[in-house]
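Budget justification aside, the reviewers requested a transparent look at the raw inputs and outputs of the sequence design task funded under Objective 1. We therefore reproduce one unedited record. The lines immediately below are the C-alpha cells for a 469-residue chain.
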C-alpha cells in the first residue's frame, strides 16, 4: 500500500485555523460570469482534468500533536449547484474533506478555497486553468483536434505544493533570531502556570516580537472600528460593484497613486463622511495583503504572501483631501515594501515558527496563542482590502467570459478587487446588515463620473421571504 505524502502548513496558514469562526470561515470565492448558462457535465470534466494537474488540491487537513499538516487524499471533487451561502465553511475538524469546492448557478462558475490551502494568487491559477479547460470543452467546434497547449496558460505547475517561506527565509530567520527574544521565551515558559495565562503572556511577547514595541513608543492612536448588527445565519453581506477599469485608473494616476492606494483612500473618505467621530482625530487602519511572488520567484500555489498595515489619522486642525490621503498611504506602503524591511519582517516570522522553544509547544496551546495574536491584530484595524489584479485568459476562451469576481468571508467590512478586460469588479463584504458606508462609497465613485452598476445578496428575513415567494 502506497504511503500518503504530507507537508506541514506554511507560515501564513496556521493563523487561519486559530482565527476561523462561524461568521469568518477563512474561505474566499472566485467567480466567473460566462456568456452562456453553465453546462454542469462539461464543468465536471474540466474540473477532473484541472484537478489532476494540481497535487496540492488533493490535500485534506490533519491535526498533529505539534502542528497541522496537509495530507494527500484519494478524494475526487464533485461539481454541485450553488445552494449554500457564499464562502460557507470548508474545513471541519472532525471530517476528512477537500479544502475547496466548485459550484455553479445559471451562468456563473464559483471556486471557493479555504485560505489555509492557498492564497488568492495560487487559487487564481487553478481557477484560470479550470475556466480555460471548461471553455475549451464548451466552445471548441472539435475538441479532439484542438492543441491544448495553444490555450493553456504558460505556467509551471510541478511545484504547486512547495513551501516558499521555508525556501527563502528559514535559515536567514534562524540566524537573525535575537538572544533577547529567546531569553524572554525561556522565562515565560517557566513562569506560566495555566494555559490561559501562558497563552496571553506568550501572545503579547509574539506581538511585541512583530514590531509592536515600536508602536508603544509612539503616541497611542485610537483606531476606529466599524460596528453593526450581524446578518442572519452569519452569512457575509456582499455588494457587487461593476465599473470600467480605465476610468478608475485615470483618476488614480491623476493622484500619482496606484489603483489599490486610490480605492483605499476613497474608502477611508467614505468612512469619515459616515462617521463623525473619525473627524475628531481618530485613526483609520487597513490591512492589505501583498503577493510575495512579485519579489521572490515562486511557482507554488500555496500561501506566499505578507500583509501590510496602512493608516491615516484625521487631524481636526488640518484640511484633508484625497490627494493628501493617497500621498500618505503611498509613502507608508513604499516603506513597508522596501526589500530590506520586508525581508527582516519575514525572517522574524519564520524564526518565531522554527525556534526550538516554540516548536515543542503542543498544537492546542499554539492555537490559543494565535487567537490572542489575532485578537490584538483585529483591535488595530478598521477594514481590509485585497486586489488580485487583472485576469487574462487565452483569447479564444477570454471572449466567452463576461467578468470575474472575488470575495471573502468577513470579520469586519472589507472589499476585494479584480479586473478582466475593460471591466473592474469590487465586492464589498461585511458581517453587518448596515449599508450606509457602502452607499457613501458608491456615491463618491459616481460623483467622480464613474458609472457603477450594483448587485447585492439577500441577508435578512424580508429578503428570504421574497425569494421564497
Amino acid at each position: 500500500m502506497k504511503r500518503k505524502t504530507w507537508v506541514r502548513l506554511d507560515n501564513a496558514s496556521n493563523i487561519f485555523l486559530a482565527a476561523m469562526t462561524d461568521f469568518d470561515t477563512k474561505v474566499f470565492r472566485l467567480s466567473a460570469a460566462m456568456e452562456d448558462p453553465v453546462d454542469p457535465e462539461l464543468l465536471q470534466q474540466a474540473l477532473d482534468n484541472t484537478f489532476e494537474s494540481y497535487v496540492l488540491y488533493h490535500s485534506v487537513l490533519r491535526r498533529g500533536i505539534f502542528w497541522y499538516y496537509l495530507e494527500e487524499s484519494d478524494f475526487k471533487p464533485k461539481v454541485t449547484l450553488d445552494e449554500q451561502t457564499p464562502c460557507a465553511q470548508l474545513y471541519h475538524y472532525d471530517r476528512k474533506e477537500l479544502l475547496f469546492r466548485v459550484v455553479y448557478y445559471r451562468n456563473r462558475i464559483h471556486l471557493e478555497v479555504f485560505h489555509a490551502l492557498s492564497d488568492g494568487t495560487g487559487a487564481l491559477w487553478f481557477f484560470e486553468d479550470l475556466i480555460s479547460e471548461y471553455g475549451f470543452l464548451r466552445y471548441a467546434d472539435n475538441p479532439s483536434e484542438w492543441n491544448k497547449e495553444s490555450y493553456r496558460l504558460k505556467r509551471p505547475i510541478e511545484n504547486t505544493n512547495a513551501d516558499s517561506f521555508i525556501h527563502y527565509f528559514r535559515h536567514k530567520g534562524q540566524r537573525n533570531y535575537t538572544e533577547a527574544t529567546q531569553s524572554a521565551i525561556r522565562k515565560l515558559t517557566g513562569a506560566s502556570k495555566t494555559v490561559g495565562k501562558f497563552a496571553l503572556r506568550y501572545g503579547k511577547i509574539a506581538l511585541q516580537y512583530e514590531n509592536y514595541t515600536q508602536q508603544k513608543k509612539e503616541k497611542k492612536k485610537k483606531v476606529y472600528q466599524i460596528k453593526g448588527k450581524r446578518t442572519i445565519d452569519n452569512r457575509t453581506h456582499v455588494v457587487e460593484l461593476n465599473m470600467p477599469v480605465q476610468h478608475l485608473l485615470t483618476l488614480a494616476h491623476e493622484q500619482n497613486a496606484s489603483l489599490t492606494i486610490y480605492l483605499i483612500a476613497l474608502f477611508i473618505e467614505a468612512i469619515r463622511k459616515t462617521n463623525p467621530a473619525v473627524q475628531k482625530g481618530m485613526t483609520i487602519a487597513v490591512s492589505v495583503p501583498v503577493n510575495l511572488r512579485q519579489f521572490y520567484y515562486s511557482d507554488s500555489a500555496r500561501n506566499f504572501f505578507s500583509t501590510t498595515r496602512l493608516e491615516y489619522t484625521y487631524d481636526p486642525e488640518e484640511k484633508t483631501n484625497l490627494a493628501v490621503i493617497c500621498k500618505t498611504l503611498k509613502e507608508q506602503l513604499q516603506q513597508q515594501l522596501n526589500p530590506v524591511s520586508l525581508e527582516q519582517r519575514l525572517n522574524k516570522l519564520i524564526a518565531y515558527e522554527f525556534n526550538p522553544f516554540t516548536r515543542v509547544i503542543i498544537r492546542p496551546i499554539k492555537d490559543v496563542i494565535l487567537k490572542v495574536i489575532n485578537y490584538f491584530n483585529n483591535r488595530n484595524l478598521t477594514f481590509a482590502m485585497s486586489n488580485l489584479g487583472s485576469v487574462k485568459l487565452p483569447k479564444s476562451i477570454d471572449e466567452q467570459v463576461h467578468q470575474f469576481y472575488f470575495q471573502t468571508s468577513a470579520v469586519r467590512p472589507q472589499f476585494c478587487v479584480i479586473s478582466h478586460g475593460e471591466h473592474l469588479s469590487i465586492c464589498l463584504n461585511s458581517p453587518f446588515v448596515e449599508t450606509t458606508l457602502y452607499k457613501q462609497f458608491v456615491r463618491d465613485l459616481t460623483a467622480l463620473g464613474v458609472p457603477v452598476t450594483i448587485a447585492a445578496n439577500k441577508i435578512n428575513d424580508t429578503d428570504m421571504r421574497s425569494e421564497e415567494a
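The chain is about 40% helix and 20% strand. The radius of gyration is 23 Å. Computational costs for records of this kind are itemized in the attached budget.
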